[in-house]
From TrEMBL:
The gene is he2. This is Metalloendopeptidase. Keywords: Disulfide bond, Hydrolase, Metal-binding, Metalloprotease, Protease, Signal, Zinc. GO terms for molecular function: metalloendopeptidase activity; zinc ion binding. GO terms for biological process: proteolysis. It comes from Sander lucioperca (Pike-perch).
């Protein structure tokens, strides 16, 4: 009986302490909240709807450019020595061999596992299968792509000379469509909505763009290769890219409901433009 009384006393004491604890002021917590900027992809409720550029921006949104580089348009690397992100006069194209193919040597970091390598090589194959571009393992070539699992997904534009880093972070960038997107940058292509004639095909909703990223929507002086605008290009921004508050930043015209971009790999027009740019001699 004595031990029972002691136990009851202990329980009573604990209950007294609980009821004397201060109640959390939920009103104060609510008032302390600040309006956070929504990520550009908040409107994409289903990840299966994300296109390649959506995924790239999702991975790169906290990216700090490596020392000596800047990242333009979301994923195009530029050195401080070569600041332009255009390729005037096709000066940055990979050379064409006498056999009619364009060989792009590459090295893949040993830090990737087998599945990563398959994903990366699928991105290469999706380009090579429909063009005269051939990605080949580097042997002694001076100019080559050095594919590394750095922070983020990014590439230089065209051939820059020497060892040229192309970053495909794992696992975030491990979509074959993302790999193909970065390889197309390395071949000399900018984003589709950066085309000089884009205003005929899309409207840029400037008021919805995060102020620090308005420069990513500048048009470039591009050679459009007499090719139609390609809403389905793997190089196209998503509808909500760099959105300030979740509203669309790019609206197709005249039909605003046309899907833009995709994640599967190069479109037929993407491959056509590679063939035209590199004079592959393929009639499509």
């Amino acid at each position: 009986m004595h031990s029972t009384m002691i136990l009851l006393g202990v329980l009573f004491g604990l209950l007294t302490q609980v009821y004397t604890l201060p109640v959390k002021n939920s009103t104060g917590v609510h008032e302390g909240k600040v309006r956070l900027k929504r990520k550009y992809s908040d409107e994409i409720t289903d990840r299966d709807e994300m296109n390649a550029m959506d995924q790239i921006l999702e991975i790169n949104r906290r990216l700090r450019a490596p020392r000596g580089l800047s990242i333009r348009d979301g994923d195009i690397a530029a050195s401080y020595i070569r600041s332009a992100i255009t390729c005037p006069g096709n000066a940055c194209l990979w050379p064409k061999s006498v056999d009619g193919f364009v060989y792009v040597p590459f090295m893949i970091s040993p830090l990737y596992d087998d599945m990563d390598r398959i994903t990366i090589e699928t991105g290469m194959q999706d380009i090579a299968a429909g063009t005269c571009i051939k990605f080949v393992p580097r042997t002694h070539e001076v100019n080559f792509l050095d594919i590394q699992p750095r922070y983020g997904c990014w590439s230089f534009l065209g051939q820059t000379g020497g060892s040229q880093t192309l970053s495909l972070q794992t696992p975030g960038c491990m979509w074959s469509g993302v790999a193909a997107h970065e390889f197309m940058h390395a071949l000399g292509f900018v984003h589709e909505q950066s085309r000089s004639d884009r205003d005929h095909y899309v409207s840029i909703v400037w008021k919805n763009i995060m102020p620090d990223h308005i420069h990513n929507f500048r048009k470039q002086v591009t050679n459009n290769l007499n090719s139609p605008y390609d809403y389905n290009s793997v190089m196209h921004y998503g509808r909500y890219a760099f959105s300030e508050d979740g509203g669309p930043t790019i609206i197709p015209r005249p039909d605003p409901y046309i899907p833009i971009g995709q994640r599967d790999g190069p479109s037929n027009l993407d491959l056509h433009k590679i063939n035209v740019l590199y004079d592959c001699g393929v009639n499509e």
